[in-house]
Every structure is written in structure tokens, then in C-alpha cells.
Design brief:
By secondary structure, the protein is an alpha+beta fold. It is built from nine helices and nine strands. Strands 4, 5, 6, 7, 8 and 9 form a six-stranded antiparallel beta sheet that branches. Strands 1-2-3 form a three-stranded antiparallel beta sheet, with no helix packed on it.
């Protein structure tokens, strides 16, 4: 990636630069990625993710990719820590996903994403916490990079301490059929209490309930708050965006699951689950 002055051509065919404006572009294709200011510093992907070297033994590199034609590059690691429910039959792994933006929309940022092994649903339960606590910056310092890795590891462990007990509570919280329906309706419909749920929302509700009854889960989870919560996450990850082989790797599916419609739905599902546990 490189940053070059943003220029324009005058009616007299003279090339001039916009004061204080630059373009970031790919070196391999020359494609422009975004318009940035004078103080913006390009961070090459190798530099942005250099702290991964210090995660060895505590996390395993999994995969990497790009979003929006290279405007953001992401890389994912899986931490050694796990949450094990129902005697180890239902395992939740903790992943760290880190993004390096090249379009001026952000610097290097990270989010922590628990993923349920039985159905690969991304639970998105601590995305907002991660955004505000994981700060990664460009520096050549060995010591600083090591400290960044320690920061990420410490946060992953602390996050598991926070969410593990909640998941355990959800796994043993039984719900009646009426409570299951009410839970889903409060997530997908923002209407006033007693207001009729619109037909299209009822269709969404019914799809989620079908996933709860026959989706990718284990028998012990059915009829529990954990089971229906994961039916929502399965819907968000595999139904909100068309689940074709192409869509599985598309920008649209990833951005929906991590940042967009799917992520919002999953956060709302967690908030409603916590509300039930606290009552």
C-alpha cells in the first residue's frame, strides 16, 4: 500500500494537488482504496500483524482475507482457552480477528469472537468491549509488539472469565414454548407491548424456532436459553445472508456477521438473554 497526493486536472490541462488530501492505493494493482489526510500513515499488513509472532503457544493463526477489494485486511487467530458446556459436548472457542484498514475509516483494530464448534456460529458477545480495549499501533519496537500481544492475551482470558459463567447459566435455563416464542419476538420486533407482530416478522420468528428444534445443535441445548440464543446466531450467520458456497466467503456475509445486520441481531439476542437471567 502507498499514499499519494490527490490530484486533479484544470481546464488548462494542468495537474494540481488538493491541499492536504491523499489517496491510498494498492501497489499490485494500483486500485485506489480511500481518501485520507496529511497525517494518515500507511501501515503495511506485515507490520500491522507482526505481534502475532508473540502469540505462539497461546494462540494459533487460522486464516486471513480482505474486505471491499482490499480496503481492509483481516487475520484471525484461535486462542487456547475454551468454554465447555454439557460435560464438554458443546465447546465454544475464542477467536481474535484483527483488521488493518487502508481506506482511512480506521486504524488497526481487533474484536474477540467466541465461535461454537458444533455449528460455527459467531456469537459476537464481546465485540464492543474489544473495540474499546484492544488498541494496536504501528511501531518497530520489539518490546512494544510483545506488550501488544500480552494485552490481547490478557483480554481474551478476562473476557472468558466474564462470558463463561453467563453461557453456563444460559445452558441450564429452561424455557417453556411460550417463553421461547416471546424471547425471539422481542429480538426481531421492536413494537410496543401487546402490538401484533407483522407477518414478515412472524416468518423470521418461525425460521428461528425451526432452527432451535432441528438446527445444528445438541439435544441437551434444546428448550434452554442457550439453545434458542444459538438458533438466533445460526439464523444471523447462515440465513440473513444467502448460504451459498460463494456467499460463505463474500464481503457481504462477513461484514453482516461481524459489523452489520447479523452482528446487531446477535448482540440483541445476548442482551435479551442477559435480561432474562437477571430477572
Amino acid at each position: 500500500m502507498e499514499k499519494i497526493p490527490l490530484s486533479f486536472q484544470t481546464p488548462e490541462k494542468e495537474i494540481k494537488n488538493f491541499p492536504g488530501k491523499y489517496i491510498t492505493r494498492r501497489l499490485d494493482t494500483g486500485d485506489p482504496l480511500g481518501v485520507v489526510g496529511e497525517v494518515y500513515e500507511v501501515i503495511q499488513n506485515q507490520e500491522a500483524f507482526a505481534f502475532f509472532d508473540f502469540l505462539k503457544g497461546s494462540a494459533e493463526f487460522m486464516t486471513a482475507g480482505q474486505l471491499w477489494s482490499g480496503k481492509a485486511i483481516w487475520a484471525t487467530v484461535r486462542f487456547n482457552e475454551q468454554i465447555r458446556l454439557y460435560g464438554g459436548k458443546d465447546v465454544v472457542d475464542l477467536y481474535g480477528t484483527f483488521l488493518n484498514y487502508h481506506n482511512g475509516m480506521g486504524s488497526v483494530s481487533g474484536l474477540l469472537l467466541p465461535v461454537r464448534e458444533v455449528c460455527t456460529n459467531g456469537l459476537n458477545v464481546i465485540e464492543e468491549i474489544a473495540k474499546s480495549h484492544i488498541a494496536i499501533w504501528h511501531t518497530p519496537s520489539y518490546e512494544v509488539k510483545m506488550n501488544m500481544a500480552k494485552q490481547v492475551l490478557a483480554f481474551s482470558v478476562e473476557s472468558l472469565k466474564q462470558i463463561g459463567p453467563r453461557f453456563e447459566e444460559m445452558s441450564i435455563k429452561k424455557l417453556t414454548n411460550k417463553e421461547l416464542i416471546s424471547y425471539v419476538e422481542r429480538i426481531i420486533f421492536d413494537g410496543k407491548s401487546g402490538e401484533e407482530v407483522p407477518t414478515h416478522r412472524k416468518n423470521v420468528r418461525n425460521e428461528i424456532l425451526v432452527l432451535h428444534d432441528s438446527g445444528q445443535t445438541i439435544s441437551e441445548a434444546k428448550g434452554t436459553l442457550w439453545g434458542v440464543y444459538n438458533a438466533v446466531t445460526e439464523y444471523a450467520d447462515h440465513v440473513v445472508v444467502n448460504n451459498s458456497e460463494k456467499a460463505l466467503l463474500s464481503d457481504r456475509r462477513i461484514t453482516s456477521s461481524w459489523f452489520g445486520t447479523g452482528a446487531k441481531l446477535k448482540r440483541k439476542a445476548l442482551w435479551e438473554a442477559v435480561r432474562i437471567l437477571n430477572n
